[in-house]
Amino acid sequence: MFGLKKTLSFAAVAAAMFAVQANAHPDSLVLTPPLGWNSWNVFHENINENQIKEIADAMVSSGLKDAGYIYLNLDDNWMHTKRDANGDLQHHPKTFPSGMKALADYVHAKGLKFGLYGDRGLRTCHHYNSEWESENGSYMREEQDAKKLAEWGVDYWKYDNCDPAPGSNQEADYTRMSKALRNSGRDIVFSICAWGYQPWMPKIAHLWRSTFDIGPEWRSTSWYRGVYEIIDENNKYWEVAKPGNWNDPDMLEVDNNNLTYEEQKSQMTMWSIMAAPIMISSDVRKMSNQVKELYLNKDMLAINQDSLGVQGHRISNDKGKQIWTKPLRNGDIAVALLNDNNSTQTIECDFSKIGVTGEVEVRDVWQKKDLGPRSSVSAEVPAHGSVYLRLVIKPVPREPFKGKPFAIPGKIEMEDFDIPGTGAGNTSFYEKDAEDHGETDYRKGTGVDIYKKATGYIVGYNQEGEWLEYTVNVAETGEYTMFAAVASANETSGFKLSMDGEDITKEISVPKAVSGEDNYDDYNKVEAKVNLTKGEHILRFTVTGDWMDIDYIDFTSDGVDPNPICKDADGNVVDCTQAISGAVNVVANSARDFNVFSATGKHLGRINMVGSSRVAAESMKSAGFANGVYMVREVKGSKTMQVQVK
């Protein structure tokens, strides 16, 4: 029997596995990294119509299209320096005499998609660097150009960063084009090429260049970046990538000059494990069988195209001997051993160091063979070479922390999230920071920050994107009220709840503490109505705004908070049995206005009180109601209950 060890290293690796599930980008054009071909690295500005048609033919006949390489993208210099009489972009009449619409039709007829290149400035990069008098940039012409692209049948738009207009703003320029493409009437993949990642890019684009331009060297001796320098830079942003949003470390340099075979194979390995868009940029009309095998390796492509969409990242670097991992949808783990040294090195990977205990089946991606059950690997890796493995993980189910699901209606203590298992759907938490900041050994080894307070254990130090999951059993289908005890010293803290991957609440803001700049002991109540379905489910609590603490969540079927938090006028917590209208302030909607009726239906007045029968009885007695049985009904709501004042 083997499983995944519940260690800090596993929490970091396996939690990332399912972190993206609740955050998938709504645009579904490229839910896996796009695969295709780009003209620049192989042909640069020297492109023409016949050449591109031959490339399209070769992509089909070689098997590239069937393997998933479906985008055929023209880079710079397809266009005329001048616009037409209507101000539209136009093709170069000598090199593309039939025009872009005819070429797009040819490409589409082959079962491929068609891409073009443009620029946010006044001129594209080649025209700018050539000092041509050109007007092919799209600055302040975004709507017009996007409509022309749609008219031609363009599917992919790479948008460069040269010759910006005086006084222009990069983010504003790219945002205008993003909106124009979305309003063009055609689905067009938007690829930002601004030579580096910026936090605003995932909001407006499908992919963005995370680095400067690549060149055909392992480490650069020129103005561009070498393959390894690109790998190193792209790794910084691994947490940003997710389905529909991809870091783009630039095109392949495979089958071009200068790179050794091992360096070419390493570029394929690393683009695959980094969930990078793979854009071939070689002459596929005459590629060798060795190169074709790199491009068409099914195991390599399966890892790159894995639907979980997590970008693999480096977990260790011992003097250039590196280990990279990438979690996969079915629970398997991809592992790359990368040698950045100039000589062959022995690289060892003990699977327990990446959270895997016992023996697991191992498949070698490039050798295309199973290596059998192993608990570690040791490989002689050539200079700048790589070994690419897939660890086949046997699923182990998650378990409720206390042996059985939480009952709804009922109370969920946040520190009692499920015990994680292995495989798809069996991770039960995601913690960005593996260091345990809590002051208790409760759930030690998970990295989840649990603190001991007067009320018991709470989960604190929660950052945006972190989540916890709980197996729950809903008694009956219907509407429930969720009450949560939360604290924050931050104005932007918040959370949401989902069940089985579907949101059951919108984002819920957490009130900021009224006293103290760093007061996380001032608890408040928030609530929301939720519709739940009878049966066993997985409930997820996701932090949507940094730095909040949470004690528990209560679900009730009667809309009454069974554990109200009551405060006096100074904000001090008091016994809720003292809660009477005007005497205390009951936080976060726990106090409501109720109409009071006699047993015969006579209206006797209105009272503001906590909506539980025990507290209501004390409140009504203190407000002067005589002993007896009353019916009370919420003024703004449907809650009705019987209250006996003694």
Protein model, in words:
With 646 residues, the chain is an alpha+beta fold. The protein is built from 14 helices and 38 strands. The strands form 8 sheets. Strands 8-7-6-5-4-3-2-9 form an 8-stranded parallel beta sheet. Strands 19, 21, 24, 26, 27, 28 and 30 form a 7-stranded mixed beta sheet that branches. Strands 10-11-12-18-15-16 form a 6-stranded antiparallel beta sheet. Strand 35 (591-597) and strand 36 form a beta hairpin. Helix 7 crosses helix 8 (170-182).
Structural class: alpha+beta
The major beta sheet can be summarized as: 8 strands, parallel
For the largest sheet, list the strands in their spatial order. 8-7-6-5-4-3-2-9
What best-fitting shape do the alpha-carbon axes yield? globular
Mean model confidence by pLDDT? 89
- How many β-strand runs? 38
Distance between the termini: 62 Å
Low-confidence stretches: 1-26, 579-589
Seen as an oligomer or otherwise, the chain set is single chain
Helix content: 10-25%
* CA-based gyration radius: 30 Å
Strand content: 25-35%
Continuous helix count: 14
